[in-house]
UniProtKB/TrEMBL annotation:
Gene Ontology annotations of biological process type: mitochondrial respiratory chain complex IV assembly
Lineage summary: Eukaryota, Fungi, Fungi incertae sedis, Blastocladiomycota, Blastocladiomycetes
Family designation: Belongs to the COX20 family.
Claim: Transmembrane is one of the keywords in the record: yes
Keywords, in A-Z order: Membrane, Mitochondrion, Mitochondrion inner membrane, Transmembrane, Transmembrane helix
GO cellular component: mitochondrial inner membrane
The UniProt record lists the keyword Membrane: yes
PANTHER family referenced in this protein's UniProt entry, alphabetically: CYTOCHROME C OXIDASE ASSEMBLY PROTEIN COX20, MITOCHONDRIAL (PTHR31586:SF1), CYTOCHROME C OXIDASE PROTEIN 20 (PTHR31586)
Record-given protein name: Cytochrome c oxidase assembly protein COX20, mitochondrial
Coiled coil stretches, renumbered: none
Length: 117
């Protein structure tokens, strides 16, 4: 018995397959553990992106405070700069990693090849 009718439509006896729903923000936040935050430095590009963001955010906030004298305005500039620089440096680092991981031909001397015998 065919699972499709002569017209090409699925028969009423076929099970309906529904895709699993994608996890939402709440589901992702519930799945976070404290160990995830302890291992941030092990994630490629995360450490450098965060350090660049913290440094430039601090610098932008300090400059804004020095010229305007408003703590609220300076903190807004610091947070915005931190987010922008961290995201940008993360993306640049990941792009560079992707470019450098393009498979390359490895030249191995004939005497050092591993042979299965």
């Amino acid at each position: 018995m065919s699972s499709t009718s002569p017209i090409g439509r699925a028969s009423p006896d076929d099970p309906v397959v529904t895709p699993a729903p994608e996890p939402g923000v709440i589901d992702v936040l519930k799945s976070l553990k404290t160990d995830d935050f302890k291992k941030v430095g092990e994630v490629p590009c995360a450490r450098s992106a965060l350090l660049y963001g913290i440094g430039t955010g601090f610098g932008a906030g300090a400059l804004r405070f020095a010229f305007r004298g408003s703590v609220l305005s300076a903190s807004n500039y610091a947070v915005a700069t931190f987010c922008a620089v961290s995201a940008l440096s993360w993306e640049v680092c990941r792009w560079q990693m992707q470019r450098s991981s393009i498979p390359k031909t490895v030249i191995v001397p004939p005497g050092s090849q591993h042979r299965d015998e």
